[in-house]
């Protein structure tokens, strides 16, 4: 799954798979999730062997896709296992943003309104024109001026409908050149440069996050096949990183790595949390708490942190929290889970804090005084959060269900 997918998105995917008949049980462990950058890193382990990287070596995987670019630094462990070292970073600066720069170039030739009308009413023709740009220009561009020859694109063939939307001075200018645009070296370079600059900033930031202790940089994803992108990355980072490599068929790295993970899940040893997780608890109001949050019973609902963003944890590391049922008549006990990008949230209604789900368990008809403590066990190290609940007195394991908060 894309690295930017949150926990709600994962629940939706699982629900869709169940409703489509792909799962007999909604919570079946036959469906497992892995992020695209992690899958790419697993596939890249083969390349690491070829370059004789030793146990303990740290490497960065830069997944350059069509829409997003995702980066993490991982460490090679004993037994051919991987440990995530840094928090994932990424941005919307993949190969399709070069296409957007091409459209901006066209807007200066035919007018922005013409491109807008084609996008709204003739999207297929627009996409065909972009595909031809990719085939003839984008993937062939090396960034070496001596290797470049000016390229002509005949708009009346690539996007015939464009003529009817091109007006005024734009139309006069295009008719003078028979609806042909001439792409020069600098024109194409300017389409790439703002996108590549954003990618190199991401790489630089990741290197700083590990004090430049990274020996290898691996490029995967469809956009990584761009010779110009490869050139610029090597120019900027060859003195900081010992090896910069592009595995064979980088566009297939994610799917191959996902299959390898499915066959051997223990290959992933640790992950770095991208969120701070917490729940809501009732505690006594204190003098430094907001007065408007104090309840009539003198309590306040506060954010209780369970796991901190940026923490490296084992994939099977467990977080335990015990809660008491209020009385013998209570038949359900819930656990609301919240996420926030902040480290120090105090209340669940702060900006940036959001509910990602609600777990609930059925309690037995008779609940003795000694059996009112319920121990929740949570695993945050997997891509998909896992929760179980145990009666501390009877040792009965309760079925824990997840309700998506939408």
Question: Topology of this protein?
Answer:
Blueprint: H1 7-19, H2 36-50, E1 58-64, E2 69-77, E3 81-84, E4 89-91, H3 96-110, H4 112-121, H5 123-136, E5 151-154, H6 155-158, H7 162-165, H8 168-176, E6 180-183, H9 185-209, E7 216-220, H10 227-237, E8 243-245, H11 253-263, E9 268-272, E10 276-284, E11 299-307, E12 312-314, E13 318-324, E14 332-340, E15 354-362, E16 373-379, E17 386-391, E18 397-398, E19 401-404
Parallel strand pairs: 1-7, 3-9, 7-8
Antiparallel strand pairs: 1-2, 2-3, 2-4, 5-6, 9-12, 10-11, 10-14, 13-16, 14-15, 15-19, 16-17, 17-18
Helix pairs in contact: 2-11, 3-4, 3-9, 4-5, 9-10
Task: State the main characteristics.
single chain; 406 residues; alpha+beta; Nucleotidyltransferase, domain 5; 4 domains; 8-stranded mixed sheet; 5-stranded antiparallel sheet; 11 helices; 19 strands; 27% strand
Provide structural commentary:
This protein has 406 residues and is α+β, with helices and mostly antiparallel strands. The chain folds into four domains: 1-27, no CATH class; 28-94 and 214-271, ATPase, nucleotide binding domain (Nucleotidyltransferase, domain 5, 2-Layer Sandwich); 96-191; 276-404, Substrate Binding Domain Of DNAk, Chain A, domain 1 (Sandwich). Helix content is 32%, strand content 27%. The protein is built from eleven helices and 19 strands. Strands 1, 2, 3, 4, 7, 8, 9 and 12 form an eight-stranded mixed sheet that branches. Strands 11-10-14-15-19 form a five-stranded antiparallel sheet, covered by helices on one side.
């Amino acid at each position: 799954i894309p690295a930017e997918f949150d926990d709600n998105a994962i629940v939706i995917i699982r629900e869709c798979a169940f409703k489509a008949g792909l799962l007999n049980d909604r919570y079946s462990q036959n469906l497992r999730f892995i992020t695209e950058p992690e899958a790419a890193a697993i596939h890249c382990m083969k390349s690491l062997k070829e370059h004789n990287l030793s146990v303990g070596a740290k490497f960065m995987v830069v997944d350059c896709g069509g829409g997003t670019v995702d980066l993490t630094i991982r460490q090679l462990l004993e037994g051919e296992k991987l440990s995530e070292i840094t928090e994932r970073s990424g941005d919307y600066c993949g190969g399709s943003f070069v296409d957007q720069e091409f459209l901006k170039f066209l807007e200066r030739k035919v007018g922005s309104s013409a491109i807008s009308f084609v996008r709204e009413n003739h999207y297929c023709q627009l996409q065909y024109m972009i595909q031809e740009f990719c085939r003839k220009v984008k993937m062939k561009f090396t960034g070496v001026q001596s290797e470049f020859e000016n390229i002509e694109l005949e708009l009346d063939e690539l996007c015939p409908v464009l003529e009817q939307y091109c007006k005024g001075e734009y139309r006069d200018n295009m008719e003078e050149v028979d609806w042909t645009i001439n792409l020069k070296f600098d024109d194409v370079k300017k389409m790439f440069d703002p996108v590549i600059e954003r990618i190199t900033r991401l790489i630089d930031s990741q290197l700083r996050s590990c004090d430049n202790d990274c020996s290898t940089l691996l490029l995967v994803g469809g956009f990584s096949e761009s010779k110009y992108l490869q050139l610029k990355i090597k120019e900027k980072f060859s003195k900081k990183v010992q090896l910069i490599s592009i595995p064979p068929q980088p566009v297939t790295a994610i799917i191959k790595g996902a299959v390898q993970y499915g066959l051997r899940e223990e290959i992933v040893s640790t992950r770095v949390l991208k969120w701070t997780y917490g729940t809501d608890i009732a505690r006594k109001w204190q003098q430094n708490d907001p007065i408007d949050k104090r309840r009539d019973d003198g309590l306040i609902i506060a954010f209780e942190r369970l796991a901190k963003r940026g923490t490296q944890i084992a994939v099977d590391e467990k977080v335990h929290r015990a809660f008491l049922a209020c009385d013998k008549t209570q038949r359900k006990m819930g656990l609301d889970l919240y996420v926030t990008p902040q480290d120090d949230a105090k209340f669940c209604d702060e900006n940036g804090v959001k509910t990602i789900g609600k777990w609930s368990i059925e309690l037995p008809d008779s609940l003795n005084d000694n059996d009112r403590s319920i121990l929740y066990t949570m695993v945050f190290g997997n891509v998909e959060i896992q929760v179980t609940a145990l009666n501390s007195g009877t040792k009965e394991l309760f079925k824990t269900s997840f309700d998506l908060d939408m």
